[in-house]
Amino acid sequence: MRFNVLKKFYAIMFLTLVVIISAGLLSLTYSLTAEQIKLRQHEQFLGYLTQMFPEMTNFEYNNELYSVYDGGLLLGYAFTASKAGYSGDINIMVGLSDKDTVKGVLIMSQTETPGIGTRILEESFIGQFTGMKINDLRLRSEGGQADTITGATVSSRAVIEAISQAAMEKLAGINGQG
Amino acid sequence: MGKWLKEFVKGLVVSNPIFVLALGLCPSLAVTNSLDNALGMGAAVIFVLLCSNILVALIRTWVASIVRIPVFIVIIATFVTMVSLTFEAYVPALYESLGIYLPLIVVNCIILGRAEAFASRNRMSLAVADALGMGLGFTLAIVIISVIRETLGSGSLSLFEHVLFSLPVLDEQPVSLFLLPAGAFLVIGLLLAAFRRAGLIKNE
After folding, report:
1. Mean pLDDT of the B37-42 span
2. In this complex, is the C-beta atom of A153 within 8 Å of any C-beta atom belonging to chain B?
3. How many folded domains does chain B comprise?
4. Cα dihedral sign, B167-B173-B178-B181
5. Does residue A18 belong to the interface with chain B, where contact is any CB pair within 8 Å?
6. Lowest-confidence range among A107-121, B105-119, B161-175?
7. DSSP line for A43-59
8. How far is A60 from chain B, CA to nearest CA, in Å?
């Protein structure tokens, strides 16, 4: 009996020790890589921003809205939108050429079903937003101009809803800037 | 030394984790749609397998047997998370394309299987041989599968953005079925059958 208790105590202590060492190693690795990961994510984001505005030289960021400039010339605005699709979040960047016209939409990351949900990446879907007025960024059934993809309704609907929600939230910020 | 070599070689052909033991088929189906992915996955698995086998062999006499599985899993998960963070920081493209299958190495049965069946019963030098052999055998197998799938599925084969070769007709009309999971099942099944027919694989 006594032997058994000791044995169990030893097992628990052993596992605890392993977990403590593991946590230490992980926080060490995390702190060593955190800065580099942040840098990469920033670089990647800049890449998307330049893809949207090829002439971009500098940008300002406030109230979750990016104002993009070519020197002193205002090129437009950009904001990000995100919503859960069929599997996992779809992260989107929306570019505006002026206060209420969409310049383009980019899918930054997604994990939709290959061949089905990934049709949201196709120009025939994502291209429909180019030139659209911000007030029309809603489903056609809700009085907007945006169409979903037949057979990929969940994924395409998520994209449209993410964009329209984010646009509504950010619109105030744009108008506030005059 | 003879024993070391024997343990090393067994993973490559006679006990190849994929073609003979049929372990770890999930990652081999999922990430073998391109050669780059297969090599990245192979490197990650070799590293995790080597580290976990060494550590498990080192602590094998002290680990209480009732908690050995949780201990092994914690060890494996730690190394996998370290690899995952390192990939995210330094090879983001590979990190993106491996996606969920990188963290899923934790539950790859090759790694837990080798820890439990081999490393916890043998001295460290042999555990190293076992890890290297099994890891390389796994990598070899997924490289073969990915070469076939990428060539048929996209009409060309590329290695880290250098196109190695491209086929004349398939280039324009690739059989994209081979890039989908169904193509992976077909390729693995046909390879297994072919290897058996050729006598490369025997039932143990």
Report:
1. 87
2. no
3. 1
4. positive
5. yes
6. B161-175
7. HHHHHHHHHH-TT--EE
8. 26
Q: For residue B175, is it within any domain?
A: no
Q: Residues B52, B75: contact at Cβ < 8 Å?
A: yes
Interface test with A, best of B78, B83, B98, B120 (most A CBs within 10 A): B78
Q: In this structure, is residue B80 part of a structural domain?
A: yes
Q: Going by C-beta distance under 8 Å and a sequence separation of 6 or more, which residues neighbour residue B50? A: B128, B131, B132, B135
Angle at B133 between CA B132 and CA B139, to 5 degrees: 85
Pairing assessment for the beta strands A58-62 and A89-98 based on DSSP bridges: unpaired
Cα angle A148, A152, A156; round to 5:
45
Mutate one of B47, B60, B62, B66 to test the A interface: name it (highest A CB count within 10 A). B66
Q: How many CB atoms lie within 10 A of CB B110?
A: 25
Domain membership of residue B196 (yes or no) is no
Specify the higher pLDDT residue, A21 or A100.
A21
A29 close contact with B: CB closer than 8 A = yes
pTM above 0.95, yes or no: no
Highest mean pLDDT among A59-73, A94-108, A111-125, B8-22: A94-108
Q: Can you tell me the mean pLDDT for B109-127?
A: 83
Does any domain span residue B126? yes
Sheet holding A65-70, edge to edge: A58-62, A65-70, A73-84, A89-98, A101-109
Quote the DSSP letter at residue A106. E
Range of the domain at B115: 2-149
CB contact A16 to B (< 8 Å) = no
Q: Do residues A6 and B62 make contact, with C-beta atoms less than 8 angstroms apart?
A: no
